[in-house]
Design brief:
The protein has helices at residues 14-26, 37-47, 63-73, 88-96, 109-129, 162-173, 181-189, 198-211; strands at 5-10, 29-34, 51-55, 79-83, 101-104, 136-139, 142-145, 150-153, 156-158, 178-180, 221-224, 228-231. The protein is of the alpha/beta class. Bound molecules: calcium ion (CA).
């Protein structure tokens, strides 16, 4: 028996798969590898990995199809999608279909490990939250009290409209993870919120102004170009 976290690496390029596995092993994770979607399905069912790194470009099947199937089987198993630079649209689709995060090739070891750590922490927190919901988030000097609907920077309370607060709340609940424009719009305005990101951009600009947040040097909310927003992890 080992208490190492098991990570299923689904990647058909041997060099990349080896690179990832070396990084995981050195950092006390237990990697298992699959080079096809079929193999991934078998290992997923037999090994119950703690996390899956899923390359979207697989030889035998569309990676997105596999993602949907795995999330159906086990919604709580986090999946980080690994995509090529020219798969921007695929990435957003994957996030909207349940991927927990993504990483773009080529990536370095530190970025990979940071994404894995954040995703595992988020999953652990969700599992804990089933018992006791966390109701306060701190990011630097920002404090968000979810239960009381209050936001402070230091000792100063900042006032937000209901929809602005809904956006902040959602980002806090998923701190460390990227949320797509569609995911946020759906949460705040419902499925009929429309597909325009304009309303969200306007709200975000107001939120940033109230937080005194400079988008080019964010302290709390990162803009993920073409995809959405990511709240820095709470501390
Ligand atoms: Ca590939």
């Amino acid at each position: 028996m080992t208490d190492k976290r098991t990570i299923l690496v689904v990647e058909d390029e041997i060099a990349i798969s080896n690179f990832i596995c070396r990084a995981l092993t050195v950092n006390e994770y237990q990697p298992i590898t699959a080079s096809t979607a079929r193999e991934a399905g078998v290992l997923f069912c037999s090994e119950h990995p703690d996390l899956i790194l899923l390359d979207l470009g697989l030889p035998d099947r569309d990676g997105i199809d596999l993602l949907v199937e795995l999330k159906d089987l086990s919604p709580n198993t986090p999946i980080i999608v690994v995509s090529a630079r020219d798969q921007e649209g695929e990435k957003v689709r994957a996030l909207d279909l349940g991927a927990d995060d993504y990483i773009t090739k080529p990536f370095g070891v530190s970025e990979l490990l940071a994404r894995i750590r954040a995703t595992l922490r988020h999953t652990d927190r969700l599992l804990l939250a089933e018992d006791s919901a966390k109701d306060q988030y701190r990011v630097g000097d920002l404090l968000v009290d979810i239960r009381r609907h209050q936001v402070f920077i230091g000792d100063n309370e900042i006032h937000f409209t209901q929809n602005e607060f809904k956006i902040i709340e959602l980002l806090c609940l998923h701190a460390g993870r990227v949320l797509t424009y569609d995911a946020i719009i759906n949460h705040v305005w419902g499925p009929y919120g429309g597909s325009s990101n304009q309303i969200l951009r306007v709200h975000m600009a107001n939120i940033r102004r109230k937080l005194n947040e400079n988008p080019s040097q964010p302290k709390y909310i990162l803009t993920v170009l073409g995809i959405g927003y990511r709240m820095l992890e709470d501390n």
